[in-house]
Each structure stands twice: as C-alpha cells, then as structure tokens.
Hints:
The complex is a heterodimer.
Chain A: H1 13-18, H2 22-25, E1 43-47, H3 53-62, E2 66-70, H4 75-86, E3 92-97, H5 98-110, E4 113-119, H6 128-139, E5 162-169
Parallel strand pairs in A: 1-2, 1-3
Antiparallel strand pairs in A: 3-5, 4-5
Helix pairs in contact in A: 3-6
Chain B: H1 9-23, E1 28-29, H2 32-35, E2 56-58, H3 63-76, E3 80-83, E4 102-105, E5 112-116, E6 121-124, H4 130-139, E7 144-145, H5 156-161, H6 170-173, E8 179-185, E9 191-193, E10 227-234, E11 236-237, E12 241-249, H7 255-267, E13 276-278, H8 303-311, H9 314-327, E14 332-340, H10 342-356, E15 363-364, E16 368-371, H11 376-381, E17 410-414, E18 416-419, H12 422-438, E19 456-458, E20 461-465, H13 469-488, E21 492-493, H14 501-507, H15 510-526
Parallel strand pairs in B: 2-4, 3-4
Antiparallel strand pairs in B: 1-2, 5-6, 6-10, 7-11, 8-9, 8-10, 12-14, 12-15, 12-16, 13-14, 17-20, 18-19, 18-21
Amino acid sequence: MVSRREILVGGAGGIAVLGAGLAASRIAAGAAAVEGPGPGVSMVLVDSTLPGIAGAVEAAERAGVRAVPFAGDVGTVWLDLQQAWRSGPLPVAGVTHGGAFFCIERLARDHGLACTFRQAPPLKAPSGVHDAAIRALAHATLPLSARRRIGEKAPGEADDRALAWLLQPATRA
Amino acid sequence: MKLPPDVSRGDFDRAVAAFRRAVGDEWVFTSEEDVTLYRDAYSPLWGEPEERLASAAVAPADVEQVQAVVRIANETKLPIYPISTGKNLGYGGSAPALSGSAVLDLKRMNRVLDIDEENASVLVEPGVSYFDLYRAVRDAGAKLWIDCPDPGWGSPIGNALDRGGGYTRAQFRNHFDAHCGMEVVLPNGELLRTGMGAMPQAKTWQQYKPGFGPWIDGLFSQSNFGIVTKMGFWMMPEPEACLIGRVYADKYEDLPALVRIVTHLENSGVVNGMPGFGSPLLQRRVPADPQSDQPNDTVKIDQALHDAFYSGDDAARALIAERVKSTGRSCWSALVKFYGPERMVRLQWEIARERFSEIAGVKFGDPEFYGFPLSDADLEAIHKPTFGIPSLSIFNFGIRTEARPEPLDGHQAFSPVIPRTGEAIFEVNKVFARIFREEGLPVPPFNLPGCVWERTLMMICVFPTAKDPETNRKYRRAITRLIREAAEHGWGEYRTPVAYYDTVMDTYSFGNHALRRFHETVKDALDPNGIISPGRYGIWPRRSRPKGRAR
Lengths: 173, 551
C-alpha cells in the first residue's frame, strides 16, 4: 500500500491574513514586533495536571474560547496544533508548565508566531491561574503599540513553573 | 554577523544573492532576528566568543533546490550546514559546527513519500518529524509502529544520521540500523542513491539494504560527506500484545548475574523489547519504565546510601543489606519487555523467569500486559515511545524537585558506551564519581545505564547548560576530562554536543589517528572545497583543518 502526502509548510491562509513577508517567517519566525489587530485567540491549551487549572478553563469559556486540555505531555496536542498552524498562524494562548511552553514556542516559530505575553501565575493564590489566563486572553486585544515580542526566557527564569502565555502571528522586522 | 575566516563579505553577499535566485527571496534568511533562531538554545558555549553561530539560512523546497544551493556554495566557498528539523537539543540543535556557515534548513522537505504496510517500511524526506510520520501512518490506516526517541519532535532522518536510539525492538530502536536505502546530494551537487536505489528501476529499495558493491551508507552518518534528501526505514508491525516483566534481586553482588541473564535472554531473542536496570532501594527507575514518564531524582538523595553503592566494600554491602531489610525495597530491578502474539509473550516471560531463578532469592512482579490499541487511561499513564507513540513529556525532566532545587536551564549529555556487564557498571560509577569530586562538582546519584544498543550499555550523564559562562566553563572542563579518562578505560562516546566533537574524535586514536585521517581523506576527495558542515563530528576539510594536521 502506498500513500502520499503533498502538504508543504506554507499554506496561503496565513499570508492572506497578515500580508506578504509572513511566508518566510514560517521557517524563521524572527519577529521584532507583531501587527495588530489580527485574528482572535483560537484556543487555550491547559495542562490539567497544574493546580487551579479549572480557573483557566473557566476564563477561556467566559471569553468564548475553546479550552484544549492535556495531561502533562504536550505531545498529545502537538499534532493538532501543527495541523491548525499549517493552515494559518492562529493565535493560541495557554496555561502550562514551562517545559511544555518551551516546546510549543519552538513549533510556533516554524509557523510564523511569536510569544507576546508570558507570565508565571502565583499558583498558591486562589485565583492566580484564572487571573493569569484572563490577562493572557486580554493581551490579544491590545493594539500594536502595546504589544511586543517576548524573546528567550530571562536568565534564571525557571522552566518548571506554570506559565500563562500568548502566541500571536509575527512579521519580520 | 560572523563569517568563516576565509570567506569575504563579498563572497557571502554573492552566495546570498544566488541562494535567493535558487529558492526564492522569502526562503533566504539573513536578518539578525531570523538567524538568531538557529542558535543552539542549549549551547554550552552560550554567549562566549567560541559559540557556534550561523551567518544565514536557506530553506530549499526540493532536491533540485538543494543541488542548486550546493553548487552555489562551491562557487562562493560559503560553507553550508544541513539540518533536518534542528531539534536535537543537547547535541547542537540547529547551530553549525563552524561559525559563519549558512544553515541549510530542510524543514520544507517534509513529505512522507511512501508507506508500505506489507513490507513494513516507509520512505521520508528530512523535514518529516516523528509526529508527522506517526500521523501519516495512522491516517493511512497502516498497522505499523514508529520507533522514536524522547522527545519525538525531531526527524527520523536527522536522528538516524546522528545514530540516535529509541525504545522498541532492537532492530528498530537502533535508528541507523533500521534504515534501508538513502538518497544523497553529494558535495559536487550530484545525486546518489544507495543500496538497491542505485538501480534506476529498482523494486526493492526499501527491502534489501546493501545493493551491490561496498555498502557506503554508514559514510553519511555522523559525517559531512553529503546531504541526505530521502531515507527509507523499516517499521515494526503492530504487535498483538506487549508484556512487561519485572525482576527483583536483593543483594548488591547480584547485579552482574542480573545483567548477564538479561543480556543472554536478549541475544537469544527471548527478550525482544528494550530491557533496563533500576534500583528500587535508590528509587532509581529503569530508564523508559513504561509505567511512568516521570523523571528520576524527584526524591531527596540518600547520600550515605549512594556512597555505599559507589564503594561496594564490605561495610557498604552491610549497610545496603540493612536498608533492603528495613525498607522492603530490593537492591536491583530488571525490566524485560516482550512484543508479539499473546501466547508467545506469556511463554517468553515464563522462560525468562526460569532463567532469572538462577539468582538466589530473586522475586518477580506481576507482569503488565498490554493489548492494542491502548486505552485512553493507559495512554495518559505510560511511557509512550515504548509503544511507538511520540511524546514531549521528557521536557518535564528539567523540573524543580526536592533533590534538584534549581531546575535545568538546558542540558548536555556525556554518554559513553560501556560493556554490558554488572562489573562495568560498578567500575564506571566509581571512576566518574572520583572525577566529579576532583572537579569540585556534586557527585550525582549512582547511575544505571540504558540498554539502547544490543550487547553494550550506555551511561547517560546529563549536565546542565546555563546562560552563565562561568557555569558552562566549569562543566565543559569536567566533561572534557570525563571524555578523556573514559577513553583511557576503553569507554567511548557514541555522540556528543558540537563543543566536544574534536575532543571525542581525538580519543578514537588507534594507529596514530588512522580513522580520523581516513575521514579526512574521504572528505578531501568528496568535498575539496570543504563546503558541507566543516567540523561536524570532528571531520575538517583541508581548508579549515586545525593547525598541525596535514592540509
């Protein structure tokens, strides 16, 4: 039995949304700035193993955004995310472990997205995760002048703590 | 921007302009923010002058464009550094071995060209990831398993060419051995197919490996002799069942017998999955324990107990025996896996138990039995690569634990191949612990090696990388010493981060470095302009060979 796939990275959807220049950033998504207003957040990834994660799910539902759960291994949603991004650089938010975000951000780079919001929620605060998720979602609505690309993690910033984050379409500087 | 020492800015500009004509403007990257993305996030040289940085990147869409890029590199002498998906963090990522090289990014060549269920094989391009292949196989409805490393975001071609390993049956988890036929763009731009692929009308490219004449495929692994643009792989037919057996031995001195029996069972074909060793007493799980994807070292280290394991003298053995008794935890465990029809794997386990019973007092856990497809509950709990499913959960291993209050920023691995004996495990641990102490580093927990390859063991010692040069220097010094002293004991690295390529190649020095000189002879013959991946795995072309070596 033989099957063939013809899907190449770089469908036209994202380019139509954001204009010329984005196709190249699907391979090297270097972005000094993100252009607004852009499309709304398409999904919120939530790691169900994190304490207080129900708050993030609630925040997503109230914002009318689909919450996509996974249990520790972000690989379980990797293929779906990759498939979604192959048709265009849809903004995605999340509340996950830092390790999971590390992986997702690298996939995002290959598809023309950049991190524009990243915050470690205070896990011990009763509404810490919920509030951080709301801030990530709210960040997607900010005008261009208020948004900027967030680069590599800062020295000493741990990868293990929970992070609320937002990935948005990027253009090259 | 860094350029190689013998490449002028004018040559670089000419190369970039020609790349743009060959692949299109939008697939050539020269801006700092684009090129920075090819930096190795885990580089042990981060921020130091010696850090390996690319000058540009070019992303061809097909083989013809790869050939065009190679010809341009020859004309302009700008070195190119091919990557498949560039995800082998800890071994260099997407950064070149020689600063100033242009990364040849093959991610756009991401087609699964063939899935042959009857022959249990696939043919893929370099930009295909294990996740892509997993999905393609499932979409095709083929009952085939992939064998993938942890994590599964890399490329089957990239991992096989780096001679990486996985977790299922031996002939599949050795990823280079599992390949069957390749297509290679040579440094002069010519296209070569190996094995039966050399015959234009071949019907058996993914069925018969050697072809006719010298079997040259190995020349393209861990090397810089060509750019592999297609590769076939043999796949594992989905088994009816998998049975996991657990064996426990209580005495410190039982380890050699435990290793010997496991090895004989594997070499005899009775155990056909990847075996492993652990220590319940030390709370060291077997690598790739299918019941857990949690890392070791999540509990506080009992240093006195680890010291006793390192020492192994009479007093240490008495302490270990007392702890075994007081905790009820065995000193050692072995895990054996069987894939096949249910009746067969149950019989294999029975035979294995008979053999293990040669160890006085040996105990057995209830066997774990898996049928396929796995349930959702199983999928949430298991080590997925053991069952042919790619995962990213290994990125949880850097997490903050009681035993490791500071999480890892990045990591680098020192991974020597050692004999498959219990005696070697004891000796390696003692030697490495001494070096750690002498280097002023914390002595890590007693380490149990992996059984990735048949007939040998592989110690995997993971060290941190940081954004702080002083920390990196400290660990580089220790790893360099470990590489050299391990070699003095006959233990050689199977693979290494870019920063140690030359150090490791120096240790393969039989016959006054005959092997390295052979590599260099081949390199000079195939790639006289030295344009493909100079320095990769310690192979330097004549134009950039270190001083003191024949040019």
